[in-house]
Recover the amino acids of this structure.
């Protein structure tokens, strides 16, 4: 089993609140179906649930990926003795970190992993 970092309590509460709200909306759709409500109104509720689940999922992924990337950047900076040949790239990623979009986080994690691997090889040579 992987060693995951615990999520912040406020994030957990936020996501749980969102999921409880979504659960109520789902129950509302079931009731609407039972009562033969207008399909257009049911569709609106489905769209609302879809947006809600996407937002909760985004919050979770953003937190997990940002923490992981922050740790990886920190480890890579520590592994670079100051003359490793990748200082500029590492510093560039470190400076970009606060503004990275979720889609970019995984790409940057791969990049920092590759830099860290190079540094480990550099140390072993």
């Amino acid at each position: 089993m992987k060693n995951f970092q615990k999520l912040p309590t406020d994030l957990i509460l936020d996501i749980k609140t969102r999921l409880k709200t979504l659960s109520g909306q789902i129950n509302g759709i079931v009731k609407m179906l039972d009562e033969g409500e207008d399909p257009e109104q049911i569709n609106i509720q489905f769209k609302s649930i879809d947006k809600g689940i996407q937002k909760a999922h985004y919050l979770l992924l953003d937190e997990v990926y940002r923490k992981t990337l922050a740790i990886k950047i920190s480890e890579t900076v520590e592994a670079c003795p100051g003359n490793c040949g990748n200082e500029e790239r590492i510093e560039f990623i470190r400076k970009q970190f606060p503004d990275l979009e979720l889609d970019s986080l995984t790409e940057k994690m791969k990049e920092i992993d590759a830099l860290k691997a190079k540094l480990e090889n550099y140390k072993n040579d």
